[in-house]
Specification:
By secondary structure, this protein is mainly α. The chain contains 5 helices and 2 strands, in the order ββααααα. Helix 1 crosses helix 2. It is elongated.
């Protein structure tokens, strides 16, 4: 990359830079997976296929170490074994009802056609009309 212009610049350099994307490797693209991610995904996939439910698997690691890449490879492995999966990003819904959003993700990704998004996202409160005297009575009772 060459960064020079006619104006006085704070930066003047002649270096080649390669910026890497921070996104999971797609298992269908057949990009080379480094750091043993594919082996980890294969072991976890095999564990899932051969374990009796219920069970839980946790995948922990620092930001950027390849957890999403491993998960995508696991999903591909399970899909090739006719096992359907749901990917739920809890961080995406912080501040919202995780249970409601999880059920909506299940409905949408497994194509259950239950229309849970419309049903579960309806307001949980019901509008009530009160007369002025009823409103004042409630306010007065709460101040005592």
């Amino acid at each position: 990359m060459h960064c020079k212009n006619n104006k006085k610049s704070l930066l003047s350099y002649e270096e080649d830079y390669n910026f890497l994307q921070d996104s999971p490797l797609n298992p269908l693209s057949k990009e080379p997976v480094k750091f043993g991610h594919e082996k980890i995904a294969n072991v976890l996939s095999d564990t899932i296929i051969h374990s009796a439910p219920p069970f839980t698997i946790g995948l922990f690691g620092s930001w950027g170490v390849g957890k999403s890449t491993i998960i995508e490879h696991i999903q591909e492995n399970l899909s090739s074994n006719n096992i359907r999966t749901v990917f739920f990003d809890a961080w995406k819904y912080k501040g919202d009802s995780l249970r409601r959003q999880f059920l909506i993700c299940i409905d949408e990704q497994l194509k259950l056609k239950k229309n849970l998004k419309k049903t579960l996202n309806q307001s949980l409160t019901k509008t009530v009309s009160l007369s002025l005297s009823e409103t004042l009575k409630i306010i007065f009772e709460q101040t005592l």
